[in-house]
Amino acid sequence: MNVLIGITGSIAIYKTCELIRLFSKSGHNVRVVMTQAAAKFISPLTFETLTRQKVLIEQNEDWSSELNHIDYAKWADIYIIAPATANTVNKAANGIADNLLLQTYLACPAPVLFAPAANTNMYMHKTTQESFKKLTIIEANAGLLACGDEGIGKMADPEEIYLKALRLINKDNFWENKKVVITAGGSVEKIDDVRFVSNFSSGKMGEALAKAFYIKGADVTLISSKKHNLSKEIKQIHVQSADEYYDAILNESPDYLIMAAAIADFKPKYTPGKLKKDSIGEQMILEMEKNIDILESLKEKNFKKVGFKAERDEKNAINYAKKALKKKNLDAICLNLLTKNDFGSDENEIIFITENDSTLFAQNSKENIALKLVDAVKRI
């Protein structure tokens, strides 16, 4: 994908370096166009180093080459203006093109995403708010601003902008208005109020799936025992126990449930307060009881259900997965072998199993595996 980044004169410009890195790291081509004011904060050389491409700025526009606002605009698959000052937002909304960056905006046939950064009063001014309605923006964050004020106006985090841009380019009409609930992490079952039983699940696969379904255009909710740095447009619900996972799923009423969380098979008998070691003695023996099987408890619900199964027994893993698929009335199950990718790995290999078929998604990053799984789930 060809990504054109427009940079205006804001202290938030330092975040744009990280935004460029995210696109470059993912294999996308990046070019930059800057205003004169932006160059007062960071020189074009910085962005040329990051992109390995010539930065387009007033002084170097060249009509004997592609280094001009028309060719840069045609080249782009998406144009992201980040940071976008209030001045730039209001001009763009009214078709004013009095600098190179805005001329590029008017000449660009591709989707354009604005990431505003401004003082709270400037951001909330009725003129600016009206301008936002005419443009595709990613809402700023609230917090302590560079000017010392507290309020909304901090440019969205680079990861948020990155995901929003990918969603604009990759959204699939199939997923529009589809509610997808994804679970992640491992359940946390209390022994008392300071101790618990859990597992090694990192939540990385669930997080990757939340991003993938969001990028494809779904309405995504992530239910997890872990903390995740995701877009504000992805709803997050923090839970601990299996019962909390179950209740949260029911409250969301999904169209699709992707059950990537690792739920404890057994839970300890809970004792309020703190068990004192002096009263326990030399050995602590936990009384355990069978935990709720969430997917089996939901098997009569009328929504699509995809389970996950982690196995170390390579010989019997597929048979175990198929039994779980049938027993829990699942539409599909994702089998991953822990002998190849243990908990916490950044990569995975998945066998996607349905009643009549199975597909191997070979070793890859969890982000890329997740995108393939979205397409597989679409077909069930």
From TrEMBL:
Pfam families associated with the record: DFP (PF04127), Flavoprotein (PF02441)
Catalytic-site annotation from UniProt: C147
Domain Flavoprotein residue range list: 1-167
Keywords tagged on the record: Decarboxylase, Flavoprotein, FMN, Ligase, Lyase, Magnesium, Metal-binding, Multifunctional enzyme
Function: Catalyzes two steps in the biosynthesis of coenzyme A. In the first step cysteine is conjugated to 4'-phosphopantothenate to form 4-phosphopantothenoylcysteine, in the latter compound is decarboxylated to form 4'-phosphopantotheine.
Family annotation (NCBIfam families): coaBC_dfp
Family, as annotated: In the N-terminal section; belongs to the HFCD (homo-oligomeric flavin containing Cys decarboxylase) superfamily. In the C-terminal section; belongs to the PPC synthetase family.
Name assigned to this protein: Coenzyme A biosynthesis bifunctional protein CoaBC
Name of the gene this protein is made from: coaBC
